[in-house]
Design goal:
Helix content is 24%, strand content 35%. It contains 8 helices and 19 strands. It has a 19-stranded mixed beta sheet that branches.
């Protein structure tokens, strides 16, 4: 017997911490209604696995509130406690589609209530989004010789100037320069063997206060293109080294991204500002979830390959009668 077709789940794919499509960090933002909210965690994880990008977020309106939503984040393999870029992407969808009637929104998460504000960009008619996140503190490490050797091996013999542990069980590793950060070729299999969640490498800069990259293969993300939660730790780390609280940060991944950061020492909060770009808007029906999402992942892949190449034919990408809409910044 055929399953009764539902109205479908609305979702967006958004590139966060960038003002250009196909840069920054992509996140899928799924809007769940009351029926979808009854889905179990395995279903949510399956959807995130199908998207197979660094984070998929699920938004559910909170009854009795105009601008408060329950928010959960999933990598392709696990649910996480905190995610900056998927929160920014979620706020971007709400603000840019006039789904909330104010310039601020609250998210109820595993890390408490997080807020996002729409902030006008004085340089043009766009806007930034400011996230209010808890600081992730850093502490001195006293790794064993074996642990130090594991880190060095995982980073392919890179010269390490300093290491710090974060409250989220990551390791911050200070390298000598931007070039050392960008040219680093870590060994993912060896990072998997290290006794922490991931490795954040960083170095001071000139055009930017600091640069970084984040590797987290244990969460199904070899390299996170632009990680907001990692910057909650980097803000604490660099405030101690530079004796300042405001930073312009650059994540030096292949996709790259920019963050404006303020560390509020008194309140122990980190304010992250960035932009976002919607690259896809669509619906899928539960009967055809796998087919639809696989096709949409194909679409993202083809669009990425075709940014400066020949036009992509829509008939190649949508053999099924989808409901879809592409951002004006995407080329067909």
């Amino acid at each position: 017997m055929m399953e009764k077709k539902k109205k479908g789940v609305k979702y967006f794919v958004v590139d966060a911490f960038t003002d250009s499509a196909f840069k920054g960090n992509p996140a899928a933002v799924c809007f769940l209604d009351d029926d979808d909210n009854k889905r179990d965690d395995a279903w949510l994880q399956s959807i995130a696995t199908e998207f197979n990008i660094s984070q998929t977020s699920f938004l559910t309106p909170t009854p009795g509130f105009e601008a408060r939503f329950n928010l959960r984040w999933f990598t392709p393999v696990a649910e996480v406690d905190l995610c900056g870029h998927a929160t920014l992407a979620s706020a971007h969808c709400l603000f840019s589609n006039s789904l909330v009637g104010s310039d601020s929104v609250e998210f109820v998460t595993r890390s408490g209530i997080l807020t996002a504000k729409r902030v006008p960009d004085l340089n043009d008619d766009t806007f930034l989004i400011e996230l209010n996140f808890p600081v992730v503190t850093t502490t001195d490490t006293n790794p064993s010789d074996a642990s130090s050797s594991m880190i060095t091996k995982a980073l392919n013999g890179a010269t390490i100037l300093d290491t710090k542990a974060t409250a989220t069980n990551n390791i911050i590793v200070l390298l000598s320069s931007l070039e050392a950060v960008t040219e680093l070729q870590p060994k993912m299999d060896d990072i998997l063997k290290c006794p922490f969640n991931g490795i954040i490498v960083t170095a001071a800069g000139s055009a930017y206060d600091f640069h970084s990259r984040y590797f987290a293969p244990k969460f199904g993300v070899d390299e996170d293109p632009v990680c907001g939660s990692a910057h909650c730790a980097l803000a604490h780390y660099w405030s101690l080294k530079m004796n300042k609280c405001d930073f312009l940060a650059h994540q030096a991944s292949h996709r790259s991204g920019t963050l404006k950061i303020h560390f509020d020492k008194e309140k122990q909060r980190v304010l992250l500002r960035g932009k976002a770009v919607t690259v896809m808007e669509a619906r899928y029906w539960s009967l055809n979830v796998k087919m639809w999402l696989c096709d949409c992942v194909l679409l993202l892949s083809l669009l990425t390959q075709q940014q400066s190449g020949p036009m992509v034919q829509k008939s190649q990408l949508f053999p099924s009668p989808y409901t879809w809409k592409m951002s004006k910044k995407c080329r067909f």
